Amino acid sequence: xxxxxxxxxxxxxxxxxxxxxxxxxxxxxxxxxxxxxxxxxxxxxxxxxxxxxxxxxxxxxxxxxxxxxxxxxxxxxxxxxxxxxxxxxxxxxxxxxxxxxxxxxxxxxxxxxxxxxxxxxxxxxxxxxxxxxxxxxxxxxxxxxxxxxxxxxxxxxxxxxxxxxxxxxxxxxxxxxxxxxxxxxxxxxxxxxxxxxxxxxxxxxxxxxxxxxxxxxxxxxxxxxxxxxxxxxxxxxxxxxxxxxxxxxxxxxxxxxxxxxxxxxxxxxxxxxxxxxxxxxxxxxxxxxxxxxxxxxxxxxxxxxxxxxxxxxxxxxxxxxxxxxxxxxxxxxxxxxxxxxxxxxxxxxxxxxxxxxxxxxxxxxxxxxxxxxxxxxxxxxxxxxxxxxxxxxxxxxxxxxxxxxxxxxxxxxxxxxxxxxxxxxxxxxxxxxxxxxxxxxxxxxxxxxxxxxxxxxxxxxxxx
Length: 464
Ligand code: AMP
Ligand code: ZN
Prior knowledge:
Blueprint: E1 2-5, E2 10-13, E3 22-26, H1 37-55, E4 60-66, E5 72-74, E6 78-81, H2 82-90, H3 94-111, E7 119-122, H4 127-139, E8 143-146, E9 149-152, H5 168-176, E10 191-195, E11 215-216, H6 218-230, E12 234-240, H7 244-259, E13 264-270, E14 273-275, E15 278-279, H8 290-295, H9 300-308, E16 316-318, H10 320-338, H11 348-362, H12 368-380, H13 385-399, H14 409-412, H15 415-430, H16 434-446, E17 449-454, E18 457-462
């Protein structure tokens, strides 16, 4: 398998530390609000990566954090704790907010067929881990106490910017933008490992530590959770591109200083989903969530299909037009698969030829767009239906588009609805509105209801 590694800025052959078990860490959500569909694009790409590894024969141990403390409004350690902001907004406690939005996030992942990682750990459940790492960093001289906080001293590293390859000057300018200067830092790029001084007196989550009562910085959470569950040598670490700096840069700095050796081999980042006005945010414009799409009657899997049709390293711009077109294409694709007759034998040779091409596509830096093109090519081909069906079923273990999922149609389609639609179609035909008549027929087929026009009238058959 080949994958783009941000660390080396090239597509590399994937060679895990231990081929019997690939370790993978993905930065989880900050649970102060709903995830927007941009955040979920990143989780979709990470899901595809894990399932691709499985498809290519690797077993994967994957961990993800739930950030419920320490992520300040700015990623560069300034502003209010996002969790506190959420709690104030809704007049609830931080714990209530965390629980509610963790559940909401879980539901979103379910609607999008994103597998819940094997290990999911809350930042607040691992405080002793952060204290252990910070204590060692202080004793080794990589960290210092100042103004009540503990900071990581970035000047102690030869190559603090190795993940970004950015010139230090550019980054420093980046850090300055819109961020208040913290006069307790020795160097502009230094970051907080442990806060004891909060500007906000109502910071509710606090723990005792050797440096006073306080709370961890955001970056230390991911290093701590990753090393605790996945060990000292990590294969893959993922996130969205905004995580490259400062979050992942800081994770590398503190983890490698603590360990005394290289930590993670492959850094894999997904590009953003933007809206037409630019960056997607939770505070501006329409807050695009999975439940909003559902309220508008979209199938969340149409959004997953939209993401898979664009390579994960390309910016994707969200518009409802784009989603409408994708939803139509998705329905047609499902209908096409549903119409395959499950008769005859699977042609093993043909299966392997197509399956190898599928593996080549997804194994080539997760080219899901090419994998979907191959899927269309297969459906159009003269390969027998049983082989087509077996291939689609197998590929859907990666794509997760429910292409062959058996829905109990009789329980989801009620009879009066079908009769109503048949009436509507008959009227459309009388008015020579054949486009509408076709649309109704296709839509019913999408729900597993097949119409038959006979001399006695229209009958129907429900097929699973
Ligand atoms: P957060 O909950 O803010 O920590 O973000 C969760 C994940 O979503 C991180 O991996 C981010 O890199 C990612 N992310 C944030 N904004 C976007 C976006 N517009 N498109 C794709 N991923 C994003
Ligand atoms: Zn992280």
